[in-house]
Amino acid sequence: MLCSSLLRMARKSGTAADRRLAFEREALPHLDAVYSAALRLARNPDDANDLTQETILRAYRFFDQFTAGTNCRAWLLTILYNIFRNAWHRGEREQPASTPEEFAGEIEAQSRDADQSRINPEALLLSRVAGRRIELALNALPAEFREALILVDVQELNYQEVATVLDAPLGTIKSRVSRGRALMRKALCRLDQARGKTGT
Known about the structure:
This protein is mainly alpha-helical.
């Protein structure tokens, strides 16, 4: 899959066996985290795969700049965000719809498609509603707040690491996370109110 193809590419372009082994040991365990962040940025699997591959290849090319003993995941995410900002971000991706009607329709469609024989339908609906409403609220945030929240709350980087990844002052990151969390709470309340009005 993606991991094995990246590994093959890294091996083809490698220079020294010990460099390749160090890269495999330090960087490749974070491939899922890089892909997850890429998917949140690119918002579709094909672009996320491309973005992940470009990140891993660039990381391999510049692996001599990685400082051993530091957070490799934060270093990889810095590369990812730089690639996204410099090349990918130019064409804004569409935001998922967040109207109450479209939200309710999405939940209905997901519920219909589910394998009802393997899971309690009520539990399935609750888990999908919760996940979808969080995704909608997160995607509705302005990019600077969304990026900071993803790196802190999803990728579990500390504030200093996030400041490095996003190339922003530490105080700015703390402010973005705090403001982003407040905006998330408001967005979730609006989604809950909308769901109550539509009866879903």
